[in-house]
Amino acid sequence: MPDTSVTDTAVPALAADEGVLVDLLARVFRTDPIAEWVFPDTDRRDAVLPRFFGILYSAAVASGGAYTNAARTGVLLSLPADATEPPELVGALIEAVGEDAARFGAVAQAQAERRPDRPHHYFTFGGWTRRRGATVWRGRCSPPCCGSATPPGSAATWKRARRRGSRWPTGTGSPSSATRSGCPTARRCSRCGGMPVPSTDPPLWSAADIDAGRSDDERLRTVLAWSRRFLTTGHAELGRSGPVCPYAGPSLRRDLFRLSVVPGAADAGQVGGLLDRYRERFQELAAAVPDRDAELVAVLVVLPDFDHADSGPLDELQRSVKQRFVSAGLMVGQFHPRCPEPGLWRRSFRPLRSPVPLIAIRRMMAGDLPFMLRSEQHLTAYLARFAPQIPARVRDQLSARAVHSPPAG
After folding, report:
1. Domain span at 25
2. What is the full DSSP assignment across 245-286?
3. Are 195 and 111 in contact (CB under 8 A)?
């Protein structure tokens, strides 16, 4: 028999339920695409969401707009048609959001512009947990898609989201509106419209953009000039023929070389989450070109406020994100004015020294095996990509032996 404990009629949520229901919302929205956009740093998102939803939950309970079910496996926050937002609510939310207030404000403004003018029952946030045998919809009420229903029950947003769901109250005949983070759920409402979210990502500049003066950032010009002078040419100390970086020249010639600058960040804690976003942007760029060109896409993230005299903080940043990049089939490397990393072919050569601290991203290639040998996890990810025909158990054994075996001789 299916578990029907989560499909019972909704009941008012109480202040005593706050701990359980706020935790539920924080867990549901942890991987919500808009929450990830507002709070790009995972650790900050984990810290902020419980405070954020705690404030909203208390306000919803006070206005009679918070609902749950008997099993406390679902929660819906709303603002009834005859209720008004407490004037101190926005200030409390902005304080909780902290340094990400600009992104939060952009989303809130976009929502406000699309809400109906006439009085309506506004559903703000909803979350459901799946239980064994249940078919309850896991709702997320946030942009970029918006749906509204008039009268409330006509769209059956809450009752038929997965053919069976909690019988949530829909008010007393007043129109209702809600915003959703996914188009499939929004299409279940009687109207659906897009809500574009303004981008606050630092721009990615092509070499052509910089050459044409579209960016006036001198640091980008410096890094581009160094890339052409150093990466695309040979070097007497390199220990092999060919350019220092075999991919840089073709990438520049095909206009697949991108540069970006992140001012004001000086440690791994400030940049780690942002690099995850650059990883996504890299994948978007690579997906937009023919597969034969995807291996030439390169993104250089310039970090001018990292210590120029000590490469330690940049090395720590690269180590902290490398596994996530390798698992996605990407390479991430650090370049620094004093980077101590030796060359593969000649130990006295320092190929990772650049005029400005930066992180470079490119696609993982078969020739990157030497860079995987310091970590069993990295090597396992490499083998999974380039030797998929080898059984996973054997790949794990190979990784353990290759990484931990002492060098011969």
Report:
1. 11-194
2. STTHHHHHHTT-EEEEE-TT--SHHHHHHHHHHHHHHHHHHH
3. yes
Report whether 258 contacts 299 (CB < 8 A).
yes
Structure tokens, 400? 């353990």
Cα(93)–Cα(196) distance, integer angstroms: 22
Copy the structure tokens of residue 370: 């030497």
The 10 Å Cβ neighbour count of residue 279 is 18
105 is a domain residue: yes
Name the average pLDDT for the chain: 78
Q: Which residue would you say has higher pLDDT here, 53 or 192?
A: 53
Tokens of 75: 């929660």
Do 52 and 180 fall into the same domain? yes
With H, G, I as helix, E, B as strand and everything else as coil, classify residue 332: strand
Identify whether residues 187 and 304 lie together within a single domain. Answer: no
The answer to whether residues 300 and 260 touch, using CB atoms and an 8 Å cutoff, is yes
pLDDT of 314 higher than 60: yes
pLDDT for residue 186 is more than 60: no
- What does the block give as tokens for 137? 């919809």
Q: Which amino acid is at 279?
A: R
Q: For residue 309, with 0-12 CB atoms within 10 Å meaning exposed, 13-18 middle and 19 or more buried, which class applies?
A: exposed
The 3-class SS string of 134-165 reads CCCCCCCCCCCEEEEECCHHHHCCCCCCCCCC
Residues 231 and 356 reside in one and the same domain? yes
Query: For the segment 211-239, what is each residue's pLDDT rounded down to a tens digit?
Result: 999 988 999 999 999 999 999 998 988 88
So what's the pLDDT on residue 188? 46
